[in-house]
Amino acid sequence: MNEPATDAAASARIRRHSRSTAFWSDRLFRAVIIASASVLGLLVLFFAYELWQSSTLSIRTFGWRFWVSRDWDPVREKFGALPFIWGTLVTSIGALILAVPLSLGTAIFIAEVAPRWLQQPVSFVVELLAAIPSVVYGLWGVFVMVPWLREHVQIPLEQRFGHIPLFQGPAVGVSMMAAILVLAVMIIPYITAVSREVILAVPQSQREASYGLGATKWETIRRVVLRYARVGILGAIILGYGRAVGETMAVTMVIGNRPEISLSLLQPGYTMASVIANEFTEATSPLYLSSLTEIGLLLFVITLLINALARFLVWRVSRGEVRY
Amino acid sequence: MQRKVVCATAWALVVLAAAIVVGCAPKKQASTDSASKVQITGAGSTFVYPLMSRWSSEYAKQTGVQVNYQSIGSGGGIQQFKEGTIDFGATDVAVSEEEEKTFTRPFVQFPVVAGTEAVVYNLPGITQNLKLTPDVLVDIFLGKVKKWNDARIAQLNPDVQLPDMNIVVVHRSDGSGTTYIFTDYLSTVSSEWEQKVGRGKSVSWPTGVGAKGNEGVTGQVKQLPGAIGYVELNYARQNNLAFAAIQNAAGQFVLPSQETGTAATRAALERLQQDVRSSIVNMPGENAYPITGFVYVLLDKQPKDTAKSAEMKKFFEWVLKDGQKIAAELDYVPLAEEVVQMSLQKLAEVP
After folding, report:
1. CB contacts < 8 Å between A and B, how many?
2. B327 lies in some domain
3. pTM of the full predicted structure?
């Protein structure tokens, strides 16, 4: 590189190159990325179309009542999705309420507070949690968490607060509560890892300016770092929520699979993803199959709505209309 | 640096691909060398899968004929067979008359083996076999009998100290032949069950929690005191779960086992000769266990590949004769001799 001769030769080569191939390679590259982007877009459209197409029988038979009916009787072919929608929303929102403070705390600790030698090990452990397959979480849930939860949490809760609908018994272990806990554990690593990256990306000058103005560490983190990183953190939370809504295996194993709407966290429930996974293989009648597909369609729509809401929030936050 | 890594990865991929190609090549050659060997493909019932694998490996040892079986579920097995993508289907629930009309080509179905379902429970300190009558069993699963020390259970089991504990019903959450046979039994013995719930691979359970698969129900019952559920007998045996003696149609309390299951298949013979689809739950006979079901095989009557069909016929002949002993080893229920004869007659319809 230091020798002027090679330098000149190189630039000559580049010039020649750009005249001949670069033009074509640029075009090719452009075509390839446009193709890959449109494949994804088309895939989403195709999914939506296919789901709609396969659920027309159910849509025609039940109409809007499908969304508000509590029946799920494969023998008499009466289907309604409300218990599954309820279960999906309760478990995913519950998991988010538990996971967000814990994840943010961990992320701030790793990025801002922990000594350097501790940062790597803690991050590593958190990322390890993300790599565990969901069926393993399910097994752990069924054999370790659920029995412990029943003996040490649910039965005492039921005895003391059983008169409140939220903790009505009988406690059997598998329940909405168990599903919320497993989901929370599963989404914590996602929210933590992404939030940590976002917080680490906050420019050092921001922190220094804050300290320079006499702010304490707490004030700097709250007012400067978190404020700067809020859009990214919101993105992390949405990513976690997406995982919680769609999680199937681990939830099925601990939720009790009962299509019923109950206010009690100790009662079993059911989610949309779980019922599809459970009943799809043996659903042979066209209406049954179509109803399961319509649940898939609803899940698709709900996910779309959540994403749209999240986009809207990000947009508002980045415009600075929401203050905290 | 970055580039080096990319290069290394690319090379690793190339080498891997080459290895796969090289690794596969000799196999391919081997199979073309012995072109005479037939490959039979089947799919369906998950319940029969462990036995089918054993059958196929034993049969391959003796004859060299390969039988591949995929446990995709009974419904899937019927579907795949209907579409002609597999050579035979296996199902826990016979193809109904109505369903048969949707088939475009003639086929034959017959039982190859049976299974019994145990009613398992978890009562701390109680290992003996509780006695249950059909009406008590129905009321437990309807959620009417709520406590283990209920007078009706206590009356049947005077020598057992029953605890004051809630009964928690554990059922299958996934659609399954096991559930079909169990709810078929409950519907047969109780008109109330038949009207309120009915029979099916998935039903709307009046009470309880759902778990996925026989192993899920087993696990749930094992760790939940007060739980009651239904599983295939081998799951109950292998996990040391206590199971109940059920009162059969002859008024006897019978435990699930190979003998009592085989007795049920023998008692069903007359009905089967009239209609091979007949349910065999709650069969008469002193020693017949009431919650018993078959695994049926579906075969083409007008196969495209007659050579393959002939091989398949030989395989199922072997299954119905020698295969029954292997079934007994694996805790399945061997068919009664008379039922074997009936199945062989059905098999003879295949060219």
Report:
1. 90
2. yes
3. 0.84
